[in-house]
Amino acid sequence: MTAEHSNIDYSERIPNNVGLAGNRRLQRALESWQPNYIKWWQELGPDRSSTFDVYLRTATSVERDGWANFGFVKMPDYRWGIFLAKPDRDRKIQFGDHQGEPAWQDVPGEYRAPLRRLIVTQGDTEPASVEQQRHLGLTCPSNYDLRNLFQINVEEGRHLWAMVYLLHAYFGRDGREEAEMLLERHSGDADKPRILGAFNEPTPDWLSYYMFTYFTDRDGKYQLAALAESGFDPLARTCQFMLTEEAHHMFVGETGIMRVAQRTCEVMKEVQSEDPKAVREGGAIDLATIQKYIDLHFSVSVDLFGQEISTNAATYFNSGLKGRYLESRIDDDHRLTDSLWPVNLVQDGRIIQEDRPALSAVNERLRDDYIVDSQRGVDRWNGVLDSHGVDFRFKLPHRFFNRHIGTSAGIHVTPEGAVMPEAEWSARRGDWLPTAEDQAFVGSLMNRVTEQGKISAWIAPPVRGINGKPWDYEYVRFN
Length: 479
Ligand code: BYC
What we know:
Layout: H1 24-44, E1 53-58, E2 69-74, H2 112-132, H3 143-170, H4 172-184, H5 206-227, H6 233-270, H7 276-281, H8 287-303, H9 311-318, E3 340-347, E4 350-357, H10 362-387, H11 422-432, H12 436-445, E5 476-477
Antiparallel strand pairs: 1-2, 1-5, 3-4
The protein binds benzoyl coenzyme A.
């Protein structure tokens, strides 16, 4: 390994560990994209935050711990850059038709279009999430939470840089055009929406935000892990590094919901009632409403895995472009020529499970891994309820509940997994998904609290702060 691949050169306008200074053309192309990016950040990034000093983590090397350097930064001055995990010169493709061949350092001509499409789809989600979250700073429950929001925002911005680098470095003129488009599509825009459904939904309040970072960022973890297996080595290495940043995002979601549940339990004790109305009057979010938010965000996020049976996914796998979660640890032939995988399908109005060729079911397999992982946090939230002597338990809804992609799209399935006629389902919708009234109530709790040591009444403080600091440290300083 050379120094250039471990340490990040901060003397450059675009910090990087890819030797950008040695590639003038690429450097110029990226430097001409940079002002557009900053313009986008100023217009659609965190609202009215440019002058704040924020205690942010910045990567200075891709070595262990090198990515976690803390200090106060104004967000528009954050050193967004291009950081790839260090190379393994002997890396081989682990799966598909090219299994055992050396990983590609360049784009194989025959896979150019699908590879570009995967990179663009991944890249599109990153700025989309920043756009979705742009007003949340105005209603943050604490200074600590505000800092975490901003940390996630700058890292999503950097993840966009990661994909833009690949487009510029490996896809020539159409890559540059795609990089421009990543700043032109906007979340929820009627004419130019973001590519994937979940990224056009609003994130209007902090309960939605914690749900998003728990459930939707976790899709990010699984998709990035699958792309980190790619035979296209620069994509694999950039995703490996992105994954180190992703863990904190899901931590914010998991602990956020835990703190909301804890506060609800405390208020239930204070008002001596489990009645949702009494809990709301006590200033907390009742457990039934939290459950509806789980149902919504889980269902929107499982849609992100695509169709249960997908020829796209089979092609990505065969071509060595996108693997399975922890591909090299799976004990099989990594070709999937004869193997089967159990897939949930709707047939004649009933949900069935049927073995299908594993190759066409790799989206479903990734979704299976995701669902198992999602359950872990739910168990921890239930641990909070249990420790307060509360009987209510949170549940993940059935994977076919409220789906818009896949074989259950258009089929009306309850959270318990029963298929029902549309009219009946619609009549019960408000029992399962947040109603306008629920949203208005949650919205009414959102008030901006930023003073040191203070926190909104609907959420408990975190157990600890960031980087060994107390939770009530002044993480964001207003100027
Ligand atoms: N919305 O064969 P299928 C993250 C389309 S999150 C709209 O199953 P495929 C993050 C699909 O494009 C991770 N359309 O498709 C989180 C296809 O269209 P065509 C983002 C959808 O390709 C929080 C058709 O339906 N990364 O990083 O196997 C904050 C047939 O479907 C959707 C990635 O997603 C949808 N939900 O699977 C910040 C990785 N689903 O061909 C960041 C890259 C499917 O008929 N993307 N369609 O025109 C992929 O791997 C794949 O594109 C997908 C879809 C897994 C998303």
